[in-house]
Amino acid sequence: MPKQDPAKLKKVSVNLPFGIGGAEWEADVTERKAAWALYVELVTRITVESLQSDQGLLREALNSLYKMFEITRQILREAGPDVGISYNSVGGIAIAVLNQGLRPFLSKWHPLLQAWEAQCPPNTSPKEHEKNWSQEPQLRQELRLLSENLDEYVKALAQIVGVKK
What we know:
Shape: elongated
Order of helices and strands: EEHHHHH
Structural class: mainly alpha
Number of helices: 5
Strand content: 5-15%
Strand order of the largest sheet: 1-2
């Protein structure tokens, strides 16, 4: 017996992070393809994984988040205007996630971390220097909260494309 093609999903109803709310609409093939591309990018990055206090560099996490702007723009451009024609569309949601979720976070933390990095003494590793920053625990905590919100976005994308967890 052939499996049911999840691409034939008609109506989707998703809950969204960052105060965006929820949305319900009929996702077409173009939207599902764009949702899949966004889903793959997000689940293969640090964006939805917790960065433990002894793991990784905050700079790398911020860079990965920043790259989501370029990647999202590219995916939406390639998908065309139908993918973002309304707020309740994959494109509309993706733009809201960038502008209401990632942009405020990066606008706050990028310059603060950059200013701290500029003070790094010679012969001190970037990881050691980050650990010595008084705001490092707060950034890691806010990064965890952001990751939780992005995980909600990933779940919405998964629902749109029919990914079963």
